Amino acid sequence: MTRTTNNEIVKQVFMDRWTGILKVPVCLKGMTYCRVAASLCVSPSSKALIVPKANAIFFNGDRVEGTGNPVIDKLSDLQNIVEVLNSKFGAPVNTWAIEASTFNGSFAVYKEFIHSLSKWGEPQSYKPTGFPASTSIVSLLSNFCSQADLSVSPAEHQSSSSSSLPQTVLLGFSKGGVVLNQLVTELGFFKPNALEDPTQPNSSKFPGTQIIPTSVESFLDSVTEIHYVDVGLNSPGAYPTDEITIQKIADRLTERNKRMRFVLHGTPRQWNDKRRDWIREEKNHFRELLESAGKKSQGKMEVSERTYFSDGYPDLQMHFQIIEELVVT
User: Going by C-beta distance under 8 Å and a sequence separation of 6 or more, which residues neighbour residue 130?
Assistant: First the structure.
């Protein structure tokens, strides 16, 4: 166990997992930092990183403090979130929870991930130019592993040339859904083998090229599941509703004979809010677009929807408790 004041939280190794929270630069020499929690698969004998089945990456929402509610307090904590994700996805999966670099009061502002945001972090548009969300994620994961001084098992080095990259599972909670929307946009305009930007962290100092994706291309090509977890905003833009983008993703899946699953998780707190009708309307439109594209792709694109606490009072506890009740299978 290692305690570090600069990096804020405890770093621990228990049996087959390394866990910890670090404050990580978004860019290698950048001035903006994100708090990132991780629980990573390690070899029980050497404690070095091993190749997981997948990387599950969770994007958190606005800060909620001082409620006095133990459920909200627990599920607002990044370390607790990765532990919950561990229980959902199982041992062979690395779990990550990412917080925005900037907060305007309690409002999360993912400014490195989305170029067009209001000062409150509300999206004004989603555009693929520069692939900012993918670039930021690849950089954060690499910088995290380098900063944590994590080594890779020698066996993984020897097999790296033949091993395939782990799958990537994306989850966005509350306002964290805006990162998913940006990533969906980037997926729609992503062309494999066409991204050759020298600014991408392809040659990271972290050697685990089979542990985490180390380029925008490998990251986007590894995405297999996208989970929207009770997302919502105080303005339109909670779900992507551009038909061309969705169809482009479906076309690419068909061409490459790959599959992608979208799961919409929600509670009455968001989906039944009469003051913000656009959340439910956007969700329904998004689902219809996915269903239509899925049929055209012969099932390569899948979508499902699950409602939680349908008979409960739509309060803030319900909004956070969905994290603990999440069904990901």
Answer: 115
